[in-house]
Structures are given as C-alpha cells and as structure tokens.
C-alpha cells in the first residue's frame, strides 16, 4: 500500500500516476480512502515504476463590487494584469479569479480593481500556496 495525505479548503482532488499515466481502480490495483491510498494487489514486475501522488487544489478569489453603472473589474498578479490561460480564468463577469490547480508558483499578491464613473475601489489578496511534490518508487518483483 502506498499512502499520502493532503488537506485543504475546499478539499483537494487526489490522483495517483504511474509513470505519468493516471492509475484507475482495476483488477490489480485499488484506490482507497478518497484517493489517499493505493493498494497494489498481487504485485508483479509490471507494477514496478514511478508512482506520483498529485494534489489538485483549486483557488478562487472573489471581488464583490456594485454600482451604477456596473463597475468593470480588472485583476492583477504582482502588479501586472492577469492574462487568462495557463490555469488562470476570470469568471462571473470578472468577479471571480479561478486558479484551477494552485501550485507554489501561484504564491503572489493578487488585486482586483473595480472601476466606474464614480471612481475605483481595490481589494488585495496575499496568496501563499504551500505544497510539496511527493514521488513514491515501487519496485515490483515476482516470487516463483
């Protein structure tokens, strides 16, 4: 049994990879306890490889702004306008910034600025993502 732990809010989704390919429940392996354990049944040489435990944890920042006319919301990361793509998405008419798989490299100062004729209002988010990569090696062998 290979075992890893992960926590977060909201709870992260957990995936096991063997040599870069997702491991699915089957005849030779079972994924247990919401993904935190991987049981290899009757291990053979074909089960040897590099097993990686992947933690997928989304990050959502919300910017509440009302006004007449409706304010335009702009997001910034470390002082530069956020460009969508590479895991960053602006949703809900600009009110939410979603980082689909938060990683340590997403640690940054985020800011939203809501602007209309009356002026602008800003909100700062200091985001710190802690994480580590865990790689488990399983060397399989057959006993005759």
From TrEMBL:
Pfam families noted in UniProt: I-set
Q: Which GO terms describe its biological process?
A: homophilic cell adhesion via plasma membrane adhesion molecules; synapse organization
List the molecular function annotations (GO) for this entry. axon guidance receptor activity
The family database entries (InterPro entries) matched by this protein are listed as:
Cell_Adh-Cytoskel_Orgn (IPR050958), Ig-like_dom (IPR007110), Ig-like_dom_sf (IPR036179), Ig-like_fold (IPR013783), Ig_I-set (IPR013098), Ig_sub (IPR003599), Ig_sub2 (IPR003598)
Q: Residues in domain Ig-like?
A: 12-128
Classification lineage: Eukaryota, Metazoa, Chordata, Craniata, Vertebrata
Where is it found, in Gene Ontology cellular component terms?
A: axon; neuronal cell body; plasma membrane
Q: What is this protein called?
A: Ig-like domain-containing protein
Keywords assigned by UniProt?
Disulfide bond, Signal
Q: Which SMART domains match?
A: IG, IGc2
